Amino acid sequence: MEEPGEELIDLNENNIKEKENKSNKEEKNKKKDNKFIYILLLIIIAIIIFLIYLYVNKQIKYKSVIIFDFDKTIIEKDAFEEQRYILPSKEEQDEYVRRMYSNENWALVMSDYYNQFYNLNVTISEINNYIDKVEYTPGMIDLFHFLKKKEDKCILIIISAGHSYQIERILQRNNLTSFFDEIIAFNSYIKDGKIIVNQSNEYKCDVCLEIGICKTNEFNILKEKYKEKNIIFDKIFYICDGVNDYCLAKNLEKNDELLIRKDHGLDKYLYKEGFVKNIKSNIYKWNSGFDIIKYFNNLK
Prior knowledge:
The chain is an alpha/beta fold.
């Protein structure tokens, strides 16, 4: 027989156990709910990241970039070199050429001679006469019109060690300036009857030394500029002729294409001097713009 109060104690213990069980269930359910919410949050975050990735990649455009040198590539001769005939004597003309192909800073060399022309009372009109005599390399104008049709897939740029005034004057002669997305050269302009040539961007390069411009440096600056516009260069075509093109040429990758003018400075430098071993890209040799059109038509 139960003592008085034992039944009450049992009821209290049962109530306590029920409350504990209920509390444990609630705690378990709460943990399940929290776990579900945590997983749901992870899924939502993953979806947001994926959507951002899709949006960003949708905005990114991959384009080929076709780089042209200017002198002895787009045009048959060097536009600045042709201006040597302004000087009165052959000795002065020979010294002019020697300085052009030395390791002197080219911006300073050009500036020195424009100062000299000014002191000789040579007018801008007379300088223009020599610039205007320089002809385009055969087939180049045809090549630009050919590439213009592919402008949605490629970007056309000029990187030159010449100066911008003479480059733009020559291009304007055939209404070709708008064909190029970028023209990179020594900046120049006319002031008080004299052509002023400014230094290019600063750089440090063991190949380009102190000549005043490094085409690799200029191209790297350009790449970053286009990255900010969400345009990535996925393949580079470099069309050039001279030894001063070697720096950028040797920095091309296996996927890129180096198109060098046959029997000109870079061709001789690479093969006679043995520097071709430093070139990673494919090499194609051309004589005219028509050869380059044929090359592009044969690309898969």
